[in-house]
Amino acid sequence: MTLPQQNNSTSLTKKQIKHLRGLGHKLNPLVLIGKEGINDNLLQAVDTELYNHELIKVKIGTNSSVDKKKAAEIIPESTRSELVQLIGKTLMLYRANPEKPKDKRVHIPKI
After folding, report:
1. How far is 41 from 85, CA to CA, in rounded Å?
2. In the chain, which ranges are continuous DSSP H helix?
3. 10-68, pLDDT tens digit by residue?
4. d(CA 58, CA 86)
5. Residue 11: is it exposed, middle or buried by C-beta count within 10 angstroms (0-12/13-18/19+)?
6. Which of 58, 61, 64, 68 is nearest to 93 (CA)?
7. What is the pTM of this model?
8. Which of the two residues, 52 and 2, has the higher pLDDT score?
9. Which fold has domain 14-96?
10. CA of 19: how far to CAs of 12, 14, 48, 69, 79, in Å?
């Protein structure tokens, strides 16, 4: 699997973040951070789900000792994604996948 390249110098605008939050409201978490914490396998799982879905939720489990703010820094940086929202112990992440057909992509408003 080839990961899409993302230019991290351009971050999402407030309008785009608001739009993505609305789209992600109904989503269920696809990745759960357990007692193993943030490791290579977890980052690979997040990366794969971002590749497949573009907009995902990651939940920090109750038995995990991972700090939510630390996770909100490490995971987006490691997966070249954008943190859209952090509510409680749930992170919402976005990363565009230009390889997906246009009708299957998450559409966000232009800047």
Report:
1. 23
2. 14-24, 40-53, 68-79
3. 588 999 999 999 999 999 999 999 999 999 999 999 999 999 999 999 999 999 999 99
4. 10
5. exposed
6. 58
7. 0.87
8. 52
9. Translation Initiation Factor IF3 (3.30.110)
10. 10, 9, 23, 22, 21
**Which among 2, 10, 3 has a CA at the least distance from the CA of 108?**
10
DSSP 3-state of 80: coil
What type of residue sits at position 7?
A: N
**d(C-alpha 86, C-alpha 71), whole Å:** 10
Q: 18: which residues sit within 8 A by CB, 6+ positions away?
A: none
- For residue 4 the two structure tokens come to 């899409």
Tokens in use for 44? Answer: 């690979």
The answer to whether 96 and 4 have CB atoms below 8 angstroms apart is yes
What is the spatial distance between Cα 12 and Cα 20, in angstroms, rounded to a whole number? 10
Q: Which two tokens stand for residue 41?
A: 């396998």
Q: Kind of pairing, strands 31-33 and 90-94?
A: unpaired
Q: Residue 3 contacts by C-beta under 8 Å, 6 or more apart in sequence?
A: 47, 51, 80
